[in-house]
Write a structure and sequence with these properties.
Structural class: alpha/beta
Number of domains: 2
Oligomer: single chain
Shape: globular
Strand content: 15-25%
CATH superfamily of the largest domain: Response regulator
CATH architecture of the largest domain: 3-Layer(aba) Sandwich
Radius of gyration: 26 Å
């Protein structure tokens, strides 16, 4: 459990209260108890919207015969609504928290959902200031696919123009199938996994896959004309899968040394070799490059320690995996001395004007610095709000291919991922990435 401020606790208490009241405000679902929901009707509503005109009584009139011209048979562009309906499906898990002021703590998974939504609210406020209008519904998924199935029976879901969430894969699978059937765009905000998605062009994956990260790195290696790369990993299935991706890009080379675009890759499977063993692959008169394929902090720490001990003799640059910025127990000297690089689609630029502006706004509201989840909630809400407002209805799929945007912490460049068994689109993946490195003892952007 994580200690939180009284403000945060009051926010969750308010959500709990609204969830408790929601059963009296939602339409009844036949033979099914209504799900928990926070309904913020017209939270950001355009006051200029008028009620539809009353229909005249034509019950006794004979309708005229309509002549359909050839041009009318062409599918017309679906007009965008004045107010968009956005649904958030997040694992608040309200019932698992002790909501009282004597025990001011919130479970970590609930805190993640709360942080994400707090960032999203600031994003919605920014969209409002840009002239956009939204109705927002917020549901507690309770991290349960069974709960999500009940939520999907509500009217607000059927009317949604965009669904953000769920966070976890089992509920995501349920929502993906629902949105495929009803042609509703759904966003996977955090999980990069897509194995459960099949031929669903309405599924948007915000986090690039590890394959996309590998392709990005290979393009960069080619761009800077690396002659030799030492690829280092353990004898672990997950590490082998990533390392094999590099090798399988060039199937004509089946041994431990792979050649492509003028670069040689030495594949080193680490089994407690000495630092001098690693040094045998290094050159004294030119830069040396290592790609360490591992998500495990302990192994990464060990490898960086050994490589750092060689920097008094060799010029070494290390490339790592996207999660390395989350490691807490690696000496900054290792990152700095080894010129550590890694790809990621998330970057908290402490010196950036837009970051400082959001940080200040967030602190004024919540009296704390925003977490990564709050930053992602903010950026995703703004980016996808722009997307659905620009490319609505039958323009959505074609619009995805041209939509590009650079946000405060990330960016958006969606590419279709096709099915392995057909020529149909399985889903859309956000393939925006940026190369980051450790310089002057902080993470900075290379490109």
């Amino acid at each position: 459990m994580k200690q939180v401020s009284n403000y945060n606790l009051r926010v969750l208490v308010l959500i709990f209260t609204l969830l408790s009241m929601s059963c009296f405000t939602q339409k009844k679902v036949t033979n099914t108890p209504p799900p928990d929901v926070v309904r913020e009707v017209d939270v950001i509503k355009d006051p200029t919207i008028q009620n539809p005109a009353e229909e005249s009584d034509t019950s006794n009139s004979v309708p005229p015969i309509e002549v359909v011209e050839k041009e009318d048979l062409i599918e017309k562009e679906e007009p965008a609504p004045s107010v968009f309906d956005i649904v958030f499906l997040l694992p608040f898990n309200v019932e698992k928290n002790n909501l009282n002021y004597d025990n001011d703590s919130i479970a970590s998974k609930s805190q993640m959902a709360l942080d994400f939504y707090e960032g999203s609210l600031i994003g919605l406020e920014k969209l409002k200031n840009e002239g956009f209008s939204f109705n927002v519904s917020v549901y507690d998924t309770k991290s349960s696919d069974a709960t999500v199935k009940q939520i999907l029976k509500t009217t607000s879901i059927m009317d949604a123009d965009l669904i953000i969430g769920p966070v976890y894969n089992k509920p995501l699978k349920v929502v993906s199938e629902f949105c495929k059937k009803h042609k509703i765009p759904v966003v996977s905000p955090l999980s990069p996994k897509t194995s459960f998605v099949s031929e669903n062009p309405y599924y948007l994956n915000i986090s690039p896959s590890i394959d996309t990260h590998c392709d990005y790195l290979m393009d960069y290696f080619d761009e800077i004309n690396i002659d030799q790369l030492n690829m280092l990993h353990q004898n672990r299935p997950q590490d082998f899968k990533v390392a094999d991706y590099f090798a399988n890009k060039y199937p004509s080379q089946m041994d431990s040394t792979i050649e492509f675009t003028g670069m040689r890759i030495n594949r080193l499977i680490y089994t407690d070799q000495s630092s001098e063993y690693l040094a045998s692959y290094l050159s004294l008169d030119q830069p040396n490059y290592f790609l360490v394929v591992s998500y495990k902090e302990r192994f990464v720490h060990d490898m960086l320690s050994r490589l750092y001990s060689l920097t008094d003799r060799y010029d070494i640059t290390v490339f790592g995996m996207p999660n390395w910025y989350k490691f807490d127990n690696i000496e900054p000297e290792y990152y700095e001395g080894l010129n550590m690089h890694f790809p990621n689609n998330y970057f908290y630029n402490e010196d950036g004007f837009k970051v400082k502006d959001f940080e200040r706004n967030y602190y004024l509201r919540l009296n704390k610095k925003p977490t990564e989840y709050a930053c992602k909630g903010y950026d995703i809400t703004i980016g996808l709000g722009h997307l659905i407002s620009q490319h609505y209805g039958n323009k959505f799929s074609s619009g995805l291919n041209s939509f590009e945007e650079l946000g405060t912490f990330t960016g958006y460049k969606f590419e279709p991922i096709y099915s392995d068994t057909s020529d149909k689109i399985s889903f859309y993946e956000n393939q925006f990435l940026q190369l980051l490195h450790y310089k002057d003892y902080k993470i900075q952007k290379v490109k």
